[in-house]
Amino acid sequence: MEYTVKSGNPEKQRIGCVVVPVYASRKLSAAARTIDKVSNGQLSNLMRRGEIEGDLGNVLLLHNVENTLCDRVLLVGCGKEKDITVKTFYEINQHMVKRLQSSGATEIASYLTEVPVKRKDLSWKIQHSIDAIDQTLYKFNQLKSEKKEDRRPLRKFIFSVNGRSQLMPGEQAVRQGMAISAGIHLAKDLGNLPGNICTPEYLAKQAQILATQHDAISTSVLEEEDMEELGMGALLA
Known about the structure:
This protein has helices at about 30-40, 40-50, 85-100, 120-135, 165-190, 200-215, 225-230, 235; strands at about 1-5, 15-25, 25-30, 60-65, 70-75, 105-110, 155-160. The model has no long low-confidence stretch (mean pLDDT about 95). Helices cover about 40% and strands about 15% of the residues. A hairpin with an 8-residue loop joins strand 4 (about 60-65) and strand 5.
């Protein structure tokens, strides 16, 4: 998956899908209001008709929204704006991904970064969006003889930031989020391997590979005699 950040209005994104949050009681977010304005009230009309209420878990995919450059607009319900927690934000991203997987869109511009989370800044929201997206899409296929490939998999997410001043911290948050997600995926992969493959020798080799790939990591492999000298009897037993 490719991740990046960009500053720009939602209606001007020439992309497969633009994702905007909506809140409980049929309240539009800033990005949703912008699209609603250029589309002559299309979003607010849909909400008034009860197509989407804005509750957590509600999603509504729209095609060819008037006066926008994107192919699709996905409305994602976030619940009550003042009640959004760390857990809720993760769930919001999960609901987004699950709907996008069957949408046909491969490149996404997400405005969920404007969702308010108590005591959390933009960098945190970008990092944890990446975590939620990657973990929702995670599959363990290493031991399958036939791997079913998605016809149109999600390939790229662009996170919206407010202005050029947020581009640099946003890009740093992307790098950090991708690093954390890669570590989680590696841990999951190792945990999913059977014991006859994931042996101590195998784990040592994986640690050595990490050390060759990242300058910040160094690896020392302890043999049994080294462990005995260190008094690691419980582990050896």
